[in-house]
Design a protein that fits this description.
With 491 residues, the chain is of the alpha/beta class. The chain folds into three domains: 38 residues, no CATH class; 338 residues, Spore Coat Polysaccharide Biosynthesis Protein SpsA, Chain A (Alpha-Beta Complex), CATH 3.90.550.10; 83 residues, Ribbon (Seminal Fluid Protein  PDC-109 (Domain B)). The chain is 30% helix and 20% strand. Strands 2-20-12-15-11-3-4-5 form an eight-stranded mixed β-sheet, with helices on both faces. A three-stranded antiparallel β-sheet has the order 1-13-14, with no helix packed on it. The protein has a three-stranded antiparallel β-sheet with strand order 7-19-16, with no helix packed on it. β13 and β14 form a beta hairpin. α6 crosses α10. The termini are far apart. It binds uridine 5'-triphosphate. Uridine 5'-triphosphate binds next to loops. Belongs to the UDPGP type 1 family. This is UDP-N-acetylhexosamine pyrophosphorylase-like protein 1. GO terms for molecular function: UDP-N-acetylglucosamine diphosphorylase activity.
Length: 491
């Protein structure tokens, strides 16, 4: 390890000597800790320049790489679902949650998965996810007459590991077997100013941030997660983000589609809502599939139309991926070092010249992040799978002061979906006077549902099996269909 003098010289060469400003004041322990962080800071690359002009190299995905959950014939969809359930029943499918983010836009001090958006049941994102895992295990078990497990891998960071582990323990792992919930931690990187100088968060601490959700690949290696998967016989992994309240964990239709196509890597996509929508676009660059960030696509290109009239670059990435274990192994062992970090502009708390802590009101620094989707170009057989936004995507990114991707929009999206499911299954809702409420089965995701209805994932994973409880029945909202109510309603 480099001596302190060496480190001083290296920091000087890297333009980071300011980091040692308060070093002499510190007691031995924080001083040693600071020097350790600064080694990482000295090694930190300066941010890459602006992205090259992509316009001429861009193409939409060819149709043969794209499947759809909603278009096409129902029989093919059933085939995919059967295949997915079969693989789940064979214990070959795991889910992997990316939960290392700091959730700065939402602005809570605890991990986002612990957030509850105000559902009647008061369930948190973590609980909804746990219950969807239990339900999909049950569906596969019933179909194939065997007990099965979908292990839940949870990537956390220095910020989220402690509180997440405690929360799961306090909630008895939401009735999952703790042996099948595997938490591991991603790495951290220093945050830097716009001119590339590492930031002191305290006199004795360099500001560090998790290395992005693409930190997954080195974290898999660091914690021998792929070996754990191999021991359990897991072949296929569904990787997803913590903040999508509608996420279908281990979605059998998606898994089945990818498996039957022989894909090594897949991405769920939704139709972009409007040309400038800030989502990454799944497309091809020089013929190679990848996600291009919205900030890299010009307005003109974003507005281009396909012959059918829809947007040419229409496939919005929703951070829901299929990977084979073999593909993950190849990336983690051989290709991870090729992933380029991206620059994220953030507000980074720091200490001023005099050592006083400052909470900036405007972004003052950048964090270097790798993205989980940056591995798409390494796939030998990449496929995209288009799903309906109102059924599968409503992310929680912002506080309620924003008009999109907030607790309110997430809550409404889930309740509107459950109302649609109930109406489709034959339920009718009455107002306080006993008059029937209007039925609007094609309700858009963002609107207030006509009736408050929440269906536990333990009763229905994706709207299936509700007729036996709801057909021909009238309800005064709110209808909370949990396991106990379902038992009472059973004919
Ligand atoms: P976001 O990019 O939305 O970041 O993460 P965030 O940290 O949750 O929120 P902001 O930007 O600070 O407001 C998308 C997904 O990637 C995970 C998040 O937990 C979320 O599931 N993530 C993000 C990680 O697992 N690690 C990271 O370093 C960053």
């Amino acid at each position: 390890m480099a001596s302190e003098a060496d480190l001083r010289a290296r920091l000087q060469r890297a333009g980071q000597q300011h980091l040692l400003r308060f070093c002499a004041e510190l007691a031995p322990e924080p001083r040693a800790e600071l020097l350790h962080c600064q080694r990482a800071a000295a090694a930190c690359a300066r941010p890459p320049g602006p992205p090259p002009d992509l316009a001429a190299r861009l193409q939409p995905l060819p149709p043969e790489r794209v499947g759809s959950a909603s278009e096409g014939d129902p029989q093919t969809r059933r085939l995919w679902e059967e295949e997915g359930l079969h693989q789940i029943a064979l214990n070959k499918v795991a889910v992997l949650l990316l939960a290392g983010g700091q959730g700065t836009r939402l602005g809570v001090t605890y991990p986002k998965g612990m957030y509850q958006v105000g559902l009647p049941s008061q369930k948190t994102l973590y609980q909804l996810q746990a219950e969807r895992i239990r339900r999909v295990e049950q569906l596969a078990s019933e179909r194939h007459g065997t007990r099965c497990t979908v292990p839940w891998y949870i990537m956390t960071s220095e910020f989220t590991l402690g509180p997440t582990a405690k929360f799961f323990k306090e909630h008895d792992f939401f009735h999952l077997d703790p042996n099948n919930v595997i938490m591991f931690e991603q790495r951290m990187l220093p945050a830097v100013t716009f001119d590339g100088r590492a930031i002191l968060e305290r006199k004795d601490k360099v500001a560090m941030a998790p290395d992005g959700n693409g930190g997954l690949y080195s974290a898999l290696e660091d914690h021998q997660i792929l070996e754990d998967m191999e021991r359990r016989g897991v072949e296929f992994v569904h990787v997803y983000c913590v903040d999508n309240i509608l996420v279908r964990l281990a979605d059998p239709v998606f898994i089945g589609f990818c498996v039957l196509r022989g894909a090594d890597c897949g991405a769920k996509v939704v139709e972009k809502a409007y040309p400038e929508e800030p989502v990454g676009v799944v497309c091809q660059v020089d013929g190679v599939p990848q996600v291009v960030e919205y900030s890299e696509i010009s307005r003109e290109v974003a507005q281009l139309r396909a012959p059918g009239g829809g947007l040419l670059y229409n496939a919005g990435n929703i951070c829901s991926h299929f990977f084979t274990r073999d593909f993950l192994r190849m990336v983690a062992r051989e290709l991870e070092h090729l992933l380029q970090p991206h620059v994220a502009v953030k507000k980074v708390p720091y200490v001023d010249e005099h050592g006083n802590p400052v909470k900036p009101l405007q972004p003052n620094g950048i964090k270097m992040e790798k993205f989980v989707f940056d591995v798409l170009p390494f796939a030998k057989n990449f496929v995209a799978f288009q799903v309906l936004r109102e059924e599968e995507f409503s992310p929680l990114k912002n506080a309620d002061s924003a008009d999109r991707d907030s607790p309110s929009t997430s809550r409404r999206a889930l309740l509107a979906q459950h109302c649609r499911w109930a109406l489709r299954a034959g339920a009718r809702f009455l107002d306080v006077h006993g008059a029937r409420l209007p039925e609007q089965p094609s309700l858009p995701g963002s609107a207030e549902p006509p009736a408050i209805c929440e269906i536990s994932p333990l009763v229905s994973y994706a709207g299936e099996g509700l007729e036996e409880y709801l057909r021909g029945r009238e309800f005064r909202p709110p209808l909370i269909l949990d396991e106990a109510t379902a038992r009472e309603l059973q004919p």
